[in-house]
Amino acid sequence: MARRRRSNRRSNRGRFAFLYRLLTFVVICGAIVAALALFFKVETIEVEGNERYTAEEVVAASGIGVGDNLFLMDKYEVAARIHGNLNYVETVQIKRDLPSTLHITVTECSAMVAIEQEEVAWLISGTGKIVDTVTIDGGKSYAQVTGLTLLQPQIGKSIQADGDNDRACQTLLGLLERLHSKDMLADVQAIHLEDASHVTLRYLDRFNVVIPWDADMDYKLNYLLAVVEKLEDNEHGTINMTQDRKVNFIPD
User: How far apart are the C-alpha atoms of 25 and 71, rounded to whole Å?
Assistant: First the structure.
């Protein structure tokens, strides 16, 4: 009987020790959170990479102000607000510099191509983001994309298409990304997606470049650069890249 009572006392002491450690942990965590909330306040917001937008516009879009808690803010939510509110912002990086400075670095994009639809021209960046709308006439100064109908286009959102146009949409997104990464997009006057067998680019306002839908676009564009480099500046025509590892140049 005495042995059982001693066992019960040891069990009770174990439970109390566990509860004590748990309570201590909770108190310490609460003290840390309280300290972070009390001391790490935003005093300075620095903005870099902006040209189209002022620093004040970027800060306003972030929803962050002086006095907000620096440590407890959700930087991903802040970045999403800036990206969503400023159409020409492509990427956002948020960095905390404790104890009181917030760094915001943005990368701005440019409208590179236009898709005419619903009596306006939707302006698209090199990453496929819809950044603005202009009149049909205003859209003529951008590279024209034909053969694609957008699904519920919205400024600030990436382009989308329904099932019938999804292939063309995905091909365009991939092509824009690769042209953008190679600094070739500014030399493109049109992207035609109507043909079921190939995509046609109007390039350097001298060449119609024919590329199969399912081609390795990265390889084809590198090949295109190499071919154009060997042609004379006064040459015009069609560059047919529909055959694997072979290019046919047909002068006008």
Answer: 21
pLDDT at 26: 63
| Spans of the chain, pLDDT less than 50 | 1-6
Identify the CA nearest to 94 among candidates 110, 117, 77: 77
Determine contact, residues 22/47, Cβ cutoff 8 Å.
Answer: no
Given strand 44-48, what is the order of strands in its sheet? Answer: 44-48, 101-108, 89-97
Give the model's pLDDT for residue 105.
Answer: 97
Rounded to whole angstroms, how far apart are CA atoms 249 and 244?
14
- The model's pTM is 0.76
Q: What pLDDT does residue 79 have?
A: 95
Burial class (CB in 10 A: 0-12, 13-18, 19+), 71: middle
Contact 178, 170 (CB under 8 A): no
Distance CA 156, CA 86 (A): 8
Q: What is the DSSP letter of 187?
A: G
